[in-house]
């Protein structure tokens, strides 16, 4: 399998406590890896380390075989991020927002790409509206459109469906599955919704107190921990 990301012994200490401790895993091309764990398990810290927003205390991150600490800018051209908690400037129109990011990513076919994404996410009619007029579902779709501007090979998603109504959450999931199946995009997604993460992920990584408790396909994990459902497994692990 083609490995696009390799994390080895990643640790992060905030003052006296470890938010991540010896976390190691790989991400394969076209794979969706779901990260679950209780509040404070280290999910966001892991995503932030993978984005280079915070420096790990120790350990290594390699994207496409390249050290992230040495080849940061080259790597970030192929990676993007979306979260339901990180909004876009509200006073800009949808089109303006995407334009700002398209320029940041030095896109060449800016107009075409923005039109394509606005249509894909059902936001074309709203392109001249200010971002503040969007519902939370539409905002998430705009964040995803922004995240896809540079055709990332890896997409990091921190709770992308949190706070979305079930219909919009399902649409978002379908789109992520389409991206992984049709464009071979590798996706890391965190969520508190066990049913959702089980449905969408090829493999699951369960974090607890900054450490990996389990990693594998749902089937492998259920067998290993002799559980009937992910929920049972989750409680069995005392998460
Ligand atoms: N900037 C920071 N300074 C100090 N401690 C931090 C900082 N960021 C995170 N932590 C601590 O690191 C641990 C992991 O936090 P993190 O936000 O990564 O967990 P999480 O799994 O994303 O939680 P949640 O599900 O609540 O979003 C927590 O104990 C948190 O208090």
TrEMBL record:
<comment type="similarity">
    <text>Belongs to the ABC transporter superfamily.</text>
</comment>
<dbReference type="InterPro" id="IPR027417">
    <property type="entry name" value="P-loop_NTPase"/>
</dbReference>
<dbReference type="Pfam" id="PF00005">
    <property type="entry name" value="ABC_tran"/>
</dbReference>
<dbReference type="InterPro" id="IPR003593">
    <property type="entry name" value="AAA+_ATPase"/>
</dbReference>
<dbReference type="InterPro" id="IPR050763">
    <property type="entry name" value="ABC_transporter_ATP-binding"/>
</dbReference>
<keyword id="KW-0536">Nodulation</keyword>
<keyword id="KW-0547">Nucleotide-binding</keyword>
<protein>
    <submittedName>
        <fullName>ABC transporter related protein</fullName>
    </submittedName>
</protein>
<dbReference type="GO" id="GO:0016887">
    <property type="term" value="F:ATP hydrolysis activity"/>
</dbReference>
<keyword id="KW-0813">Transport</keyword>
<dbReference type="InterPro" id="IPR003439">
    <property type="entry name" value="ABC_transporter-like_ATP-bd"/>
</dbReference>
<dbReference type="InterPro" id="IPR017871">
    <property type="entry name" value="ABC_transporter-like_CS"/>
</dbReference>
<keyword id="KW-0067">ATP-binding</keyword>
<feature type="domain" description="ABC transporter">
    <location>
        <begin position="5"/>
        <end position="234"/>
    </location>
</feature>
<dbReference type="GO" id="GO:0005524">
    <property type="term" value="F:ATP binding"/>
</dbReference>
